[in-house]
Amino acid sequence: MRCLLVAAFTLTAGAASAQGSPQTNTAHAIVALPDQITWGPAPASLPAGAKAAVLEGNPGETGPFTMRVLLPNRYRIPPHYHPAVEHVTVLKGAFKVGMGDKFDGSAMNLLPAGTFAALEPGTRHFAESEGETILQLHGVGPWQITYVNPADDPRRQHP
Q1: Is the pTM of this model over 0.70?
Q2: CA distance linking residue 119 with residue 108, whole number of Å
Q3: Same domain as 66, residue 122
Q4: What does DSSP say about strands 116-119 and 86-99: parallel, antiparallel, or unpaired?
């Protein structure tokens, strides 16, 4: 029975996908199996060392998006904020998050795998991974990040 359900879902998803794409506003299905996700460079607005995989949409454009970000152990994101709601789900590892304009490791809360968080626009926060961590971000793009201290912005730093 389980094989039939999987086969039925696969055929339905394939048929729906063949009917159109998100751009044509017709039915579609996106299935992202963990072992088939292709990781590439993270957005240039994040510090070096992270990887990203876009699962849906385009985070740089207007519209819905879903992306995953793979962070190495002790990866830090300096104090920053976003112009839109940031939806974050911790899928693997743990993510430590603190609130405010200055990085303070003693003021961080540990978010273990399975945690969901939604931060309102303009909420100043900072973060650090504990172990290899995978986050899933989703929302309505364009996804943007503004650093409290402009000198922390990787796009301003030169090699």
Answers
A1: yes
A2: 15
A3: yes
A4: antiparallel
Residue range(s) defining the domain that contains residue 82: 32-156
Backbone angles phi, psi at 131, to 5 degrees: 80, 170
Q: What CATH number is associated with residue 77?
A: 2.60.120.10
Q: Looking at the predicted structure, is the pLDDT value of residue 26 above 80?
A: no
The verdict on 26 and 39 lying in the same domain is no
Cα 59–Cα 60–Cα 63 angle in degrees, nearest 5: 60
Kind and range of the H or E run holding 62: none
User: How many whole angstroms separate alpha carbon 59 and alpha carbon 87?
Assistant: 13
Number of domains in the chain: 2
Report the 10 Å Cβ neighbour count for 47. 15
- Looking at the fold, whether 18 and 79 belong to one and the same domain comes out as no
Q: Of 158, 155, 156, 157, which is closest to residue 43 (Cα–Cα)?
A: 155
Q: Within this chain, do residues 114 and 147 fall inside the same structural domain, yes or no? A: yes
Residues 74, 126 within the same domain: yes
Q: What is the pLDDT of residue 24?
A: 56
Cβ burial 90-126 (10 Å sphere, 16+ → b, else e): bbbbebbbbeeeebeeeebeebeeebeeebeeeebbb
Average pLDDT, the chain: 87
